[in-house]
Amino acid sequence: MTAQPNANDSFPDGAWGRVAADGTVFVRTTDGERAVGQYPEGSPDEALAFFTRRYDALAFEVDLLEQRVHGAALSPDEARQSVKKVRDQVTDANAVGDLAALTARLDALGPVLAQQREVRRGERAKKLEESRERKEQIVVEAEKLGEGHDWRHGANRLRDLLEEWKALPRLDRATDDALWHRFSSARTSYTRARKTHFAELDEKRGAAKQVKLRLIKEAEALATSTEWGPTAGKYRELMRQWKEAGPAAKAEDDELWRRFRGAQDQFFGAREAANTQQDEEFAANAVKKEALLVEAEALVPVGDLDEAKRKFRDIAERWDAAGKVPRERMKDLEARIRKIEQEIRGVEDAQWKRTDPEKSARADDMVGKLESAIADIEADLEKARAAGNEKKVKELEDNLASRRSFLEMAKRAAEDFG
What we know:
By secondary structure, this protein is mainly α. It has 11 helices and 3 strands. Strands 1-2-3 form a 3-stranded antiparallel beta sheet, covered by helices on one side. Strand 2 (24-29) and strand 3 form a beta hairpin. The chain starts with 16 loop residues before the first strand and ends with a helix.
């Protein structure tokens, strides 16, 4: 109930409150005055100051709320509730001040909130449209992945798309459910195909492992072989089969290859050591042949033909007995001995034209001996090949080539006498 002032209790000019004689404090309102409390122990000024401070606290709260509303620090619904709460506090506030002005300021926030609500509604509609467009893009990409075979990156990409989907705002139920159904179906299709692919791949890798274990067993059995040529060929065949077998599981394939490669390295390392030793032997043979060349080159120019031929035959026999030389020395050494041989034969050819038939007979005899020797070497060569003795085969082949060269020379001499 509003207290009615008497003639002696009017508000001072410009004042929003007064203190009655009994200590009751009144506030001026648009409807008259309203008692807000008592302050009997202090002076009227102290009483008004006390209730004015209460008003100031309310004014500060209104100021703060205005700032938060205009700054959009609160959602429209949160701001509306805050305004209602503060307005209720101002309406019946036990405070002295222009309470109507505070109420008016709170009421003025209504249109601001309405405008913010409209803006929020537009923003939400825009976000929902953007969400719909993005979800449709996600579905299209997921369906493309579901039809493809990118097993390495596809699963990771689908997981990323799922996380992005979860972060997007929900649409209306019908639209959202329809898009989700398509997205989920694409993921399921991809997952099933991927599992099938890797199951088949595991089966192939298991089969490859068994093949490679067999090849490793064969390779390890050959590792100590000293039949360099045939065994090297077998290793080439094993390597071809290894490549055709395809990969085993990554964790096992490296270990399988280590074993397979280890067997090969053991064999080829031994072969390399043998070749090194053979090269040393061949180098020594080259030294012997260089010494024989010194003897042979001393025979020219030819003085006594018969003596030169006798000495050259002896040199030729020791040349053959000296054995093989390093491949890079063979051409040079053979060219030098052949040059001497040709010079002697040139002198012999000139004399043969002036000799009697006995020399023809000797030439025929030489042809016969060389042919017999060649036949013996060819027989030995066949035996060496059958035995797989590569070293002996190479020696006999070189000897045979040399004998055949001498035979050709002998035949041409015999033809000249004929």
